[in-house]
Fold each of these.
Amino acid sequence: MNVSPSAQLWLLGQFRLQFGTETVALCRNGQRLLAFLSLRERVARTVLAGTLWPEVTEEHARGSLRTTLWKLPRGEPPLVRCCGDVLMVTPDLRVDVHALTRTALSVVAGCGPPSCCHPPLGLLTGDDLLPGWDEEWVLLERERLRQLRLHALDTLADTLIQQGRPALAMEAAWAGVRAEPLRESAHRAVVSAHLAEGNVCEALRHYAAFRRLLNDELGVEPSPRFTRLLAEWLPPRAAAGHPECVPGPTA
């Protein structure tokens, strides 16, 4: 079996390894090994064995690593390459997490889609990393990707507003709200999109709803930055950063 450029690994959602149109079944340890290496790219054998088999002796862990490597699909080039004591996945393996990371970092760095292109909302709002896997290294990577996605969605919404595409900006902003309902930056993006369309009433209504949610859940008020966003339409003391002067949401 050749590991060709058509070899793909999905880690967002359920684990899936595919060569061309053929899905390849791996044992649980094989999945864990390939997932960890794909996320870290280069890992020392000792670190890899200790992370995947933390409850056994080092000798036993290294033995489990050798067995798992031997059970991986054979091909040329191999899925996993050895360079001294370091293991890495072959560069020919396309991994969905890498595509997400590149896209999100590009957006955050200000290299988002030009105004003639459709924004990458599908990739930024897709499945979580390996849902149901509860190992510490998965939880850490899952949270890293979640934060990266949230920052990318915030930036994308701002970029789309600046490009004069408030409807698409609203989609990006609401994706951020759904992912983290108490995240103020996502709600600011929703309000900014409303204002870009001239929908002041909807902007004020959304601000009031978020203010009530924040107060109910955390007992705090929106930041002065958020309040100043609506300074033109709020009472003067509220616009100056005194939230107690902001009219509360109607029931």
Note: The first helix runs from residue 28 to 40.
Amino acid sequence: MQKQEKDLDTLFLEAYEKASNMTKALPPDVMLKIYAYYKQATHGVVQVQQFQKIDLRDGFKMNAWMQVKHLSIDEAKRLYIEMIDSVTK
């Protein structure tokens, strides 16, 4: 089981690298999903206190993250990987 988790973590890090090096602009809704999956995968459930000052942009980000709060960390990693793979092909 630990090997499987390591594989998922490796794939997640590779997807993060791909996302970090992307040059094409993505639609805002896709960016919000990517953000939400990443935050859920790396921080777990959103805490409203994490957003010190909520402007419109942060409100959208917080809302996107709250919509995926039911996902486990591994599920969020898998969805993040799938999303990055789909936008980089």
Note: The chain has a mean pLDDT of 89.
Amino acid sequence: MSRGLVLEGGAMRGLWTAGVTDVMMEHEVWPDGLIGVSAGAAFGCNYKSRQAGRAIRYNTRFARDGRYSGLWSLLTTGNYFNAEFGYHVVPKTYDLFDDDAFERNPMEFVVVCTDVETGEAVYKPLTAADYDCYEWIRASASMPLLSKIITLEGHKLLDGGVADSIPLEYFEHRGYDRNVVILTQPKGFVKKPNPLMPLIRVALRKYPKMVKAMNERHLMYNNELGYVAKAEEEGRCLVIRPDEKIPIGHISHDAEEMLRVYEMGRKVGERYINKIKEFYAY
């Protein structure tokens, strides 16, 4: 039996997920592999480095720091979330990411990105906590319109959620047969077409396959919800969802709002922790 953990994205909704996963770490629940998409990758890397509390700590600390995120960063660097400060200075200087623990932990860690030239998902296992590792995590979380395209290993990359928002099927094919799936939308959620498509068509006009993927993302996402529901019904996965819509936008500079969302996730994590242990022990 291989125990997997699947973390979807959702931008700042990922702090709710961080609340759940911090509870899991505090209860010594260690899956064999984790796959993260977008915020699921950016915050999920702390699971492999075993640093409970880190995601909420640095997000609240730098919530209103223009070096970390904001319109000035977008206008001057092309990235709303500052690439250098957020992904390289913070983890090396202000809130240290435990590179050694990340590399020692045998848990597989995979991030999902989208190749803008093909519109298809790129799945990248990360083992060494080096500069490129941080860049792969950044690429997974780089929201179109708010981020510059990142080139890595011959791929031009953006947000992994465009091509594979909930990669349960991929992780099952990778050999993980007991998966906990943490979603950031409540039961019954149905994704709608993206209202920003006219702007996206202009901004990404050089990449028609990416535009197509974004135009059809709601169809892909809803199909994946159906796959997850079937796997849940068959007992192949345990799904953890918020009880209601998470009260935070894709972007937030309100540290108190972030903390409230994180604490909501912790409460759900505490409610589910025994179920998680039982599911993994089956």
Note: The first helix runs from residue 14 to 26.
